[in-house]
Write a structure and sequence with these properties.
The chain is globular, with a radius of gyration of 20 Å. The protein has a single domain (28-247, 286-320), classed as Farnesyl Diphosphate Synthase, CATH 1.10.600. α5 (127-151) packs parallel to α8 (190-204) and α9 packs antiparallel against α14 (287-308). It has 15 helices and no strands. The chain is mainly α. The chain has helices at 28-45, 50-64, 81-87, 95-119, 127-151, 157-170, 178-188, 190-204, 206-230, 232-238, 243-246, 250-266, 271-282, 287-308, 311-320. The longest helix is centred in the N-terminal third of the chain and has 25 residues, at 95-119.
Length: 327
Amino acid sequence: MTNFISPLQITGPSTYAGIGFGVPAADPAILALRADLDARLHAVLAPLPAPMRAEADAIIDGYCGVPGEFYRLFYQPVWSFLHWLPLRAAEPIAPALLDAARTAQALGLFLHLWDDHLCDGQLRVDQLRLQIRTDAWLAYVSACRRLCDTIAPGSTMVEEHLDTYLGAIHIKEDIADLAAFCSRFERQIAIWTLVPQLLGRACGGVEVATALTKLVQAFSNAWRLIDDVQDVEADMLAGVESAVWQCLDTAGRMAWSECHARSREIGALEPVSWGVLFEFLRAPSCIPHLLVQIYDWLDAAALQAGQQGWPELGREIIEHRPFSVEG
């Protein structure tokens, strides 16, 4: 398959494309872990019939444009803990547990992206894409249950996280404000925080599990907000009530709706109504406020790392902080 276009490719205007996370210094162990996660994802595709397997591999590689680099799409703190946390554990973690944790987190990250793009139409729904989703889900659940059976036997933690995730991405909610928006997003990434809960317990008990979960949630909220700032034009054109929309006042939301309607009429960003909306976006209560919130979430994540004695995770979070605020 050669004509796959990644849904993550920005094809329209993006006023705030220059706003982005910094890039942590490369660490050989983390680069090796990233390659291992990619191999685990491709291993899930191995049982597919040969022609479907080739297409599946091409789709996965096409997401970031470089074969074997799928997990470059995910910022390090949501997966690098798989390496850093066991180094700080009071006792060595069994290889079988680490194996299950790596598989589960790799597939949890993948499924969140895959489900999102299947449900919003950015991925064509066909037998192959549904089968990829099915195989990844079954492998994710199996790996999580292996972890749970060893670390917290008798617990319903796996079922609770799965229920939370499925409900949060399927059930339409009325979101009152930015805090509720972030709270919903934390539920929508429940398949990212199940492994931190389980591996954290193995590495240091409930306190460590809670701290690691809060770290992942805080960092992910920062990521969600920065994505919504970057994608403001695309979200407005699609009629998505993003974090940016949450920060607009009534007049700003009317300008958003007007720009959406006029842009839909001409099939492109309508410059006059966009100019009106842009003034609302620049107001202190909108995008500048979101930038402050992004820093606050990153600070919250770094605080958890510092309190738990995780200097490597703390360094990664700090090195993600720099970004341009021009736009």
